[in-house]
Amino acid sequence: MKIGILGGTFDPIHIGHLVIAQEALWQCKLDRVLFMVTAQPPHKKAPRAGAEDRFNMVELALNGMSEFQPSRLEIERGGNSYTVQTLRELHRLYPHADHFWIVGSDSALEFRTWEDPEDVIKLANLIVAPRPGFDVSDVEPALRDKIILLNGPQVSISSTELRRRLGDGNPVRFLVPKVVEEYIYGHGLYRR
Question: 94-131 pLDDT, tens per residue?
């Protein structure tokens, strides 16, 4: 079995996340993609929405797509969400699977700042979704031959921009799944 893992705060989940997951599933012939909702990202500020709201939005966005599954693994573990800890746990849960960690190119450029980066690349293949302007030559040479670079549509949407738009009262229609948009408005998320 080939399992992809797309980790993130998903604050909120948006169409770009879904496009990346679909491209990884298709191009790398994965059996499923786990959407790993972080408890607390170690490299970022605390998420604006709570873990349960973020998980609920992911669950709503993935409803009816059996190849995509939300995961509470990092939420239940709590604290900082380190990729290496999650991969070790996934290896215990799925010992016979091949694991593929899916990241945006911005994360690939910061790979050496991750907790135990050498163990990460021993435990999982790294799939990189390029963002506009990304040049693979910017990735450190030791990592370049260990990544799988996705070739496909690049959707330039960021959760940061979505939170800003929502805070300003601007629309996010078509940038997030409709059920996620309804959840955000129904729960009063990201208001200033």
Answer: 999 999 999 998 888 888 889 999 999 999 999 999 88
What average pLDDT does range 133-156 have in this prediction? Answer: 84
Query: What residue spans of 50-186 are helical by DSSP H?
Result: 51-62, 73-77, 83-93, 105-109, 117-123, 141-144, 159-167, 178-186
The packing angle between helices 178-186 and 51-62, to 10°, is: 150
Spatial contact of 2 and 29, defined as CB atoms under 8 Å apart: yes
Please spell the DSSP secondary structure of 12-80, one letter per residue: T--HHHHHHHHHHHHHTT-SEEEEEE-SB-TTSPPPSS-HHHHHHHHHHHHTT-TTEEEE-HHHHH-SB
Rg value, the chain, Cα: 16
- Among 15, 17, 83, 9, residue whose Cα is nearest residue 53: 9
In Å, what is the CA distance from 81 to each residue of 75, 115, 175? 8, 10, 26
pLDDT digits (tens, 9 = 90+) for 79-98: 999 999 999 999 999 999 99
